[in-house]
Amino acid sequence: MAGRLTDRIAIVTGASRGIGRAVGVALGSEGATVVLSGRVEAELVQTASLVREAGGRAEVIPAELADERAIKDLVAKTSERFGRLDILVNNAGITHSAPLEQTRTEDLDRCWAVNARAPFLLCREALPLLRQAERATIVNISSVVGVKGYPLQSAYTASKHALRGMSIALAEELRGSNVRVHVLCPGGVDTEMVSRVRPDIDKGDLIGPGEIAELVLYLVTHRGNAVVDELHIRRATASPWFG
Ligand SMILES: NC(=O)c1ccc[n+]([C@@H]2O[C@H](COP(=O)([O-])OP(=O)(O)OC[C@H]3O[C@@H](n4cnc5c(N)ncnc54)[C@H](OP(=O)(O)O)[C@@H]3O)[C@@H](O)[C@H]2O)c1
After folding, report:
1. What residue range is the signal peptide (predicted)?
2. What strands lie across the sheet with 9-13, from one edge to the other?
3. Which domains does the chain have, with CATH numbers?
């Protein structure tokens, strides 16, 4: 039986592990062709195997997203190889934990480059292709820190607020077009990132990467009159509404 995303082409950044890998596999399970990007090719190749096992097609295109040329190359290669793009999931991200007074300019710049500038540039470069699709979706993975602020995470928080703000502006620009823009704001998800940054959270309480992937799947497959702009996803044990 054909999946709901058969013949659809998706780019997923940060697909070498964690949430990005789960999103790639979920899109593959509906028959999508998933362009998997990240820096570590060997890990992307592992994700590609999982996407194929799930029933999808996979293409590995490594890219350092702090590099504008690599971003342009990623979109150009996708265009050359497939001639279309239906889904862009801006998932790649990094954290930095330090008091603001001890945050070095290079750490701030790095957070900015990967978490905010790269998705901005990817949206810009991908839009000509996305506009050609019958219906296209951009999903930007922000964070609970995209709507709140936590101590020791000022650089990360600033970049995730920026990503969310850019997404709101772009959604308005694209209103009425074939391209929808969504933002996901997850709390703690069970990945390498959270093990490093929040070792205090009980692993058993963390959200599964597959749970986030299910929500992405909903956003890219649902095309009724109802639109979900943004999802706040918290751990079941955390305060409602990120309180
Ligand atoms: N885990 C959480 O609790 C949580 C909560 C809210 C939001 N998020 C967000 O969800 C997204 C995924 O996070 P995760 O938890 O899955 O993190 P993760 O396990 O650390 O994975 C991060 C991904 O981003 C890629 N990446 C990092 N720097 C890159 C760069 N310069 N160029 C290209 N790719 C790069 C990594 O690939 P390579 O190392 O191969 O480059 C990896 O695939 C991030 O945007 C994160 O901020 C996570």
Report:
1. none
2. 57-60, 33-37, 9-13, 87-90, 136-141, 179-186, 230-233
3. 9-242 (3.40.50.720)
CA dist 114 and 6 (Å) reads 30
Ligand 1 pocket, mutate which of 44, 91, 115 (most atoms under 8 A from CB): 91
How much distance in Å is there from the Cα of 154 to the middle of ligand 1? Answer: 17
pLDDT digits (tens, 9 = 90+) for 35-75: 999 999 999 999 999 999 999 999 999 999 999 999 999 99
Rounded distance between C-alpha atoms, residue 83 and residue 6, angstroms: 15
Tokens representing residue 86 in the block: 């239906």
150 is catalytic: no
| Residue whose entry in the numeric block shows the structure tokens 């959604």 | 171
C-alpha dihedral over 54, 188, 190, 231, to 10 degrees?
Answer: 0
Q: Which atom of ligand 1 is nearest to the CA of 144?
A: 6
pLDDT digits over 148-206, tens only?
A: 999 999 999 999 999 999 999 999 999 999 999 999 999 999 999 998 888 888 999 99
How much distance in Å is there from the Cα of 120 to the middle of ligand 1?
16
Please identify which of the residues 156, 162, 215, 220 carries the catalytic annotation: 156
Which residue's CA is the closest to the ligand 1 atom numbered 44? 93
Q: What's the length of the chain?
A: 243
- Check: CB of residue 98 under 8 Å from CB of residue 143: no
